[in-house]
Specification:
It is built from four helices and four strands. With 137 residues, the chain is an alpha+beta fold. β3, α4 and β4 form a beta-alpha-beta unit. The chain starts with a helix and ends in a 15-residue tail after the last strand.
């Protein structure tokens, strides 16, 4: 396994998590946020901002061949948080498991553990139709 494999799994996990209805964004860890803040000066000269997968942390144990994926996400308030988190876990597990099965030499699936942490729920205002003034004559 290479660092590129881990990066690829992070991207796959991020895409899967962001595809779930109710996920507003991925939340970077404190370490990632501080690194992003330190690199703001670089952004002004063309360096990209934090990548979309900044809210994903992936570890691979070489001896046991297991994958551990942590997803930190911000949710909308349109659905129950538990339902969204469960959907995120299922989508990420499916996407990552499918990928790591293809990259193993013998096609033997490696165990994949997914942990979803909800860091915040955004309270969006529900739009209502503008009221029409009724004039009586």
């Amino acid at each position: 396994m290479t660092a590129g494999d881990t990066t690829r799994v992070e991207r796959i996990a991020a895409q899967a998590a962001l595809a779930v209805p109710g996920v507003a964004e991925l939340q970077p860890t404190l370490r990632q946020a501080l690194a992003g803040a330190a690199s703001r000066a670089w952004e002004t000269i063309g360096s990209p901002a934090l990548p979309r997968e900044a809210g994903i942390h992936v570890e691979h144990t070489a001896g046991g061949g297991a994958w551990h994926v942590e997803v930190r996400c911000v949710l909308t308030d349109h659905r129950r948080a538990a339902d969204i988190a469960r959907d995120v876990r299922d989508h990420v597990r499916s996407a990552v498991s499918s990928h790591v099965t293809h990259v193993t030499r013998h096609g033997i699936p490696e165990p994949v553990t997914i942990v979803v942490t909800v860091t915040r729920i955004t309270h969006t205002r529900h739009r209502t139709a503008p009221s029409r003034a009724v004039r009586s004559r």
